[in-house]
Amino acid sequence: MSTTATVPHGPAGPAPAAPTTERPTTDIVRHWTTPIALAVLAAVSLAVFALTASGKSATFRISTDADAIHIPDIVVPTIAAGWTITLLLAALAVWGFLQVRRSGTVSGWVSAVFAALFVAGFLVWVVGAANTTTVFLTGLIAGSVTLAIPLIFGSMAGVLSERAGVVNIAIEGQLLAGAFTAAVTGSVTGSVWAGLVAAVVAGVLVSVLLAVFAIRYLVNQIIVGVVLNVLVAGLTSFLFSTVLSSNSSALNSPPHFPSIRIPFLADIPIIGPILFDQTILGYGMYLIVIALYIGLFHTKWGLRVRAVGEHPKAADTVGINVIRTRYINVLLGGAVAGMGGAFFTLVSSSSFSKEMTAGQGFIALAAVIFGRWNPIGAFFAALLFGFTTNMQYVLAILGTPVPSQFMAMLPYLVTVLVVAGLVGRSRGPAAAGSPYVKE
Amino acid sequence: MKLELRGITKKFGAFTANDSIDLTVESGQVHSLLGENGAGKSTLMNVLFGLYEPTAGEILVDGRPVRFSGPGEAMRAGIGMVHQHFMLIPVFTVAENVALGDEHTRAAGILDLESTRRKIREISDEYGFHVDPDALVEDLPVGVQQRVEIIKALVREARVLILDEPTAVLTPQETDELLDIIRRLRDNGTAVVFISHKLREVKAISTVISVLRRGRMVGTADPDADQSELAALMVGRAVGLNTTKSAPQLGEETFSVSDLTVLSPEGVRLVDRVSFGIRQGEILAVAGVQGNGQTELTEAIMGLQKAQGSIRLDGEEILGRTTRQVIRAGVGYVPEDRSTDGLVGSFSVAENLVLNRFDRAPVGNRFQLSPAAIRSLAEQRVTEFDVRTQGVDLPVGTLSGGNQQKVVMARELVDDLKLFIASQPTRGVDVGSIEFLHDRIIRERDSGTPVMIVSTELDEVLDLADRIAVMYHGRIIGIVPGDTSRDDLGLMMAGITPGTEPDTTPDTTPKGATA
Ligand SMILES: Nc1ncnc2c1ncn2[C@@H]1O[C@H](COP(=O)(O)OP(=O)(O)OP(=O)(O)O)[C@@H](O)[C@H]1O
Ligand SMILES: [Mg+2]
């Protein structure tokens, strides 16, 4: 939705005498969509956060009594907060309208502040309306990270292969294959490390299939990916029901990675548990994100990978081996996704269960797009998705007035809104999805 | 450095694109390759650059035989190539593009772009390139992108530089600058291979001229030879280099554009209140430096761009109609970029020839296609327009550049046109075919169709136009008679209207000037 108006830059009226060297005239193109959306959300805030506030207070705890540094709880009265936030949101929406009238678009900070306030309003409202009106904020965030870790591994796999020009829909299958083999190998050998290695190998094997069909035999990459997902889901489910379930103590009770708590640092409120109380896989995840970011944007390897994903023919004409680069990246991606799979059975759950990845591979793919094919961006996108998933769990425990079915939709709803709405015109690697054939 | 090709043969299936060709290129020389569309020039250069494996023959560098399995090896041997379609990564900066494949690194493979930037600045200063190493390639005009390609070759110390139709996309000023650059390279001892269909340039720059015809080397020519001599050697017959046309038989003004405005997403007026009309039997040429709104103007007429104002054809408003409806109304349209907008590269020549009428008799109807009719129509068109192809079933992408252009022209120049619009109608086409295509356009005019030609090529504008509209910054800054001097047009293209004195002929007052 947009309207235009002319700014009288150049002289109006009859064409001017020679020479005419002024710049072309510029009109303001007004995009009304954003302020309208803001206004609608402000109205939602009025109807829900302000008018249906429970009247109780929502309590956000930050530190436990055992913590070294103690930060007092934050107590927020729901009615006051609901009205304050609604007024602020309305003010921002009006500001948005004014901005569009003046310059055509809403500035980024308005939308960002608006989104943060809206989330805060929602939290206060939903916690205040629950049976238990106290929530442990540090735990909420730490839990989000735990849920996000496999997503982050998955999205790094996506970034690796898409940056080289191969669309990886098979992340789901790679995660699941990793989870399964980690569980079985871990149980049989009794070693977490053997489990992890097996998961990596399984992820790579799925990738080999993807790479060979997509790169060598030029089969449509999306189709290969979908087929691989179905294949892995079928195979692991079959083996689970025929072999694992009847013999779960020997084959499906893997050992687990212990948390390594770094003294003192882990006691820092909010960020302590996230950064300094993780398993080896958790720490490894941070390392991989950083390494991949530096690798892609600051090394020779990354420059070549990105070139292959953008314009393989140009890369070829400067002597870069396109096919080999693609193989290597797809296989590396499989290895990383395998680790993410291992996280399911060697860290977060006690054992393997049928289709336990439950679509996380696809959410990881959404994180890749939302993060604009940048490892850091994908990392934060995955955190957001982890956070919404955790909200769903925490709110179910607190007992909220919102139907649980709706809460279960939350992560997916946020994914759809984010990918469809917020990303805007995001541009992925230009050659992703198209095979490279040399004449 | 001396580079020799001996008996190079390249076959695509049963078709011989290069037939035992011998060619020697020496440092300090500009060696031009002339030849019709499809003669095998690009193929030969791709063999030389390691992109194609020759079927037979050998390549010698300083007397030693070499084999290139890929362009990487050719580059290491000192051969650089600027392709007809640039091989640059649009989202990378200039420095990243130059570094790619030949990166300098610090410890742990960390990129060191600083040394690449320094080299770019050195080369830039030496040759007067004015290239900013940190600019994004997609933001650069084609002329500058081409310099980036040349820098890529120079950074790798190329001593043979191949330029395949480097001037096809350049403005006259950019072309002159490029020729200067080539002269400087030559004086520094680089061997340059230069391919162009523009004989004036070839004569101006060459030390030696070799002529290819239908895959064979037919001889060499002296740069001092006449343009018509060169053309005859290329085509194998005499070619008229200047189009002759009779005075126009003007009819009614059936096509008119008034107050047309096209905005960019950011609100820049790409086309700014443009008005003009074209009469039946008249050719209006829209001249101007690339990027002054010509593309958006034609796209708005075709319904490919949102626009405000009015476009009337035969008394009916066509602004706001879909492209399909506009085509149905009898408009033939040749887009400026054949490879992205004009053709479907993987479709056959025949399919491409019916893209604008696949659902109309005789080639098909609403539900089905008639392969036999498509085939016979295609064969007739291919013969008529002299498209050099081994068959109408081949993917159009395998045709040479100029032959692809002829396919688009053959599709759009059909009977019963109410309006014919062509952007860059002869881009990349050889002199013989230009003669033919220009004749066809004039025949279309003489059959009473209003014709609009958009061209950045002054020669073409002057050859065809009955009237010339010059666009600058989205506006038509004047409409002048077809015999206006090159100098006056040049000034207008730079945004300078030719003074305030009234024109000599009263009936040519710029009726399209915005008021
Ligand atoms: N990959 C291919 N497969 C089959 N035929 C091809 C292929 N590439 C080129 N040809 C054919 O080889 C011939 C020579 O093509 P080439 O591109 O070398 O011509 P050119 O001299 O560069 O012409 P132009 O001036 O139009 O660019 C053409 O007839 C073309 O159809
Ligand atoms: Mg060519």
TrEMBL record, chain A:
Listed Low complexity bias regions: 1-10
Transmembrane segments: 32-54, 74-97, 109-128, 134-153, 192-215, 222-240, 283-303, 327-349, 361-386
Keywords, ordered alphabetically: Cell membrane, Membrane, Transmembrane, Transmembrane helix
Membrane topology annotation: Multi-pass membrane protein
Main subcellular location: membrane
Domain of life according to the entry: Bacteria
Compartments reported by the entry: Cell membrane
InterPro entries, per the entry: ABC_transp_permease
Region (Disordered): 1-23
Protein name: ABC transporter permease
UniProtKB/TrEMBL annotation, chain B:
PROSITE patterns with a match to the protein in the record: ABC_TRANSPORTER_1, ABC_TRANSPORTER_2
Segments for region (Disordered): 496-515
InterPro entries: AAA+_ATPase (IPR003593), ABC_carbohydrate_import_ATPase (IPR050107), ABC_transporter-like_ATP-bd (IPR003439), ABC_transporter-like_CS (IPR017871), P-loop_NTPase (IPR027417)
Keyword Nucleotide-binding appears in the UniProt entry: yes
Keyword Nucleotide-binding: yes
UniProt KW keywords: ATP-binding, Nucleotide-binding
SMART domains: AAA (SM00382)
ABC transporter domain: residues covered: 3-239, 255-498
Compositional bias segments (type: Low complexity): 497-515
Gene3D superfamilies, alphabetized: P-loop containing nucleotide triphosphate hydrolases
Cited Pfam families: ABC_tran
Protein's recorded name: ABC transporter
